[in-house]
Structures are given as C-alpha cells and as structure tokens.
C-alpha cells in the first residue's frame, strides 16, 4: 500500500461516501509512492487522464515547486478532483491530451490510462504525449503488465468491474505486456526507455515506464 493515503484523501472536502470509498480503494491498490521518485521536483507537469486528481493532490504535497496540470474526458471525476483542497493549485481541463498545446510540458504522467483504451487510442495517446512535451521532457507511465498471470487476472477483473459494473471508470480495457509498451514508446519517438516493476507486495501487475523526448 502506498504511504500517506490518509493525509492525501483528507484533502477532499465533502466528496460523498461512494466517492470517498473510491479514493481509499484507489490509493490502496496503486503504488503512487513508488512512482514519485521518477518525477522531477520542478517544471510543468501534465497528468493525462487525471481523473479524481488523487495523484495531482499527492504531487501538490510532495512536489510543491511543480506547476500541475490535468486533463480528463470524465466530467464526473473532474468534479471530484475539484473538491480537493489542492484544487486551487491544479489546472484542470476536460478533454484529452490532444487538446493541450505542443511542447508545453516538462513531464507527462499517466496512471492506468493505456490499459483502458483500445490499441489505436493507446498509440494516439503516446504520440500526442510526445507532441505535448518540450525537448528533453520526460513521460512517466504507470500501467498493468500481463505477467505473471496470477497478478494479471485480478487486475483485468478489477478494471472490468470498475468500467462495466460500478461505472467508476470510463473505457474499454485492453492489456499488453511491458515489452509491448516499451516498443511502442520507442516507435512514438521516445528514447532512453526504462522499465521497472513496482508490484512487490501488491496483487496487481504494476509496472512503470519512463522515457525521454530527444
């Protein structure tokens, strides 16, 4: 479990019982603290698919010198994000990464976005993230691997339930291996692609990729 969840979730004011429960579960199953060291301490950051703003709220506490931006197509989740006490520091907008200006950010992050969209959309998101970054900028992606199968199975099941049963997330889950993501990042123009597993102690297949725009 990621550290500091209570401190981060306490930033949300009156989100409602269901939404607060979602925030707690999301924090419980996602290793935000293991991704944090990969994020620079200053510059302009765009979180693609920022959703409820949980990651951005965490960054507002841990990376106070970052200028924080978020984009998401789900208006309900953006409404929840705006109940965070950190919202005054966040630049939130509806839409997708296609809607942001080119070469505007030093770092682009995304958490469990690519696994929720079909392949052609995955590739578009990677290409548009490349466009949104300044030269020398960094992309940091937390997603799900398809191995080992005993971790992949509950990961896939949870996403299907979130999308089709609870309707807490919008998307069409499709999953690929860590190697596939690394190849597609390189195809999009990124260099120095690094991959790592961050799922020790978790039942889900958490992996992180970091790459640089030349």
Report on the structure:
With 214 residues, this protein is an alpha/beta fold. It has one domain (5-212): 3-Layer(aba) Sandwich (Rossmann fold). It has helices at 5-9, 17-29, 32-35, 54-62, 75-81, 119-132, 149-165, 178-187, and strands at 43-48, 66-72, 90-94, 105-111, 133-144, 191-197, 206-212. A seven-stranded mixed β-sheet has the order 3-2-1-4-5-7-6, sandwiched between helices.
Terminal-residue CA separation:
34 Å
CATH architecture: 3-Layer(aba) Sandwich
Number of H/I helices:
8
Estimated structural class: alpha/beta
The residue-averaged pLDDT reads 90
Kindly state the number of beta strands.
Answer: 7
Number of domains: 1
Largest sheet: 7 strands, mixed
User: What is the CA-atom radius of gyration, in angstroms?
Assistant: 16 Å
List unreliable stretches of 5+ residues. Answer: none
Helix content: 25-40%
Spatial sequence of strands, sheet with the most strands: 3-2-1-4-5-7-6
Give the ordered list of helices and strands.
HHHEHEHEEHEHHEE
- Overall 3D shape: globular
CATH homologous superfamily heading: Vaccinia Virus protein VP39
Q: What is the CATH class?
A: Alpha Beta
How large is the share of residues in beta strands? 15-25%
- CATH structural fold name: Rossmann fold
